Amino acid sequence: MMNKITKTITGFLLLTLLFVFSCQKNNENKLDSITKGKATIYVDESILPIIEDEQAVFETQYEAKLHLVPQSENEVLNAMLNDTAKIAVLTRTFTARELQVFEGKKITPRITPFATDAVAFIKSEKAKDSLVALEDVINFIQGKSVSNIKGLVFDNPNSSTVRYISELAGLKIDKQKNIFSFKTNEEVIKYVADNEGMVGVIGMNWIFQPPLALQEMVDKVTVLGVKEKGSNEYVFPTQDNLAQGKYPLARHLYIIDCQGYSGLGMGFASFLGGERGQRIILKSGLVPDRVPSRKIKIRNNITKDKN
């Protein structure tokens, strides 16, 4: 009887030790928690500036280091689907087919919307007009002659801007005449600034918050007002127009976390959607998913300024 009890206790202790060892091993493999450690985040290149701003503040507030990998939308999606990336920032959510891939791996992506951005059209500041009709852009993609467009310039053939405009046109953008693609939004801005008549298609965030080295080129381009089909009004992609839903090429931004545990993916998503992160978005010129509250300080005494 004692031997059976001893064997039972010994077996229980072994199982307990194995469980503890397993937990310790899993924790060692995790390089991050919600507010500490290191993590890699894949970012749609067309919205990189705002994520760099958020990253800078997040890292000063917490003991965390985020490595941003800017890529085209298709490259980011492929990295997520192939388990190369666990955290990503995109301008769209997953399709039903893409979600099935994650379901097959027993992964439930956490998807958090945090801002509204826009696809913008730009021209050289030397251009005589600062307006464009969406119908003209679609006609140009379909191979029709349009007097005020000499060429369309995209950031990357696999980018979210190409996908967005392709869906609007109902036609895949693929080697049409006078339609060009570079690798980044930065290259588009530089090219359009130096080539009158070309229309660039970029993420609006690059105009609101360009890197300091690019500011000179941004000053040489003009953002176009856009008229959608059936409308007589040209609307510019201002923060106010985005907030009111007037600009026809608005798009939401999402952070997607597939880590499967409480890591920096969850922490950064909470930061983006929180008070501090939303204020950064508001200051950037984009539209936060929710408007941060305003703190009003009430003073009982009025102090006159001294001359």
From TrEMBL:
Gene3D superfamilies: Periplasmic binding protein-like II (3.40.190.10). Signal peptide: none annotated. Pfam families: PBP_like_2 (PF12849). It comes from the Bacteria. InterPro entries: PBP_domain, Phosphate_ABC_transporter. Residues 37-272 form the PBP domain. Keywords: Signal. The keyword Signal applies. This is Substrate-binding domain-containing protein. The lineage of its organism: Bacteria, Pseudomonadati, Bacteroidota, Flavobacteriia, Flavobacteriales.
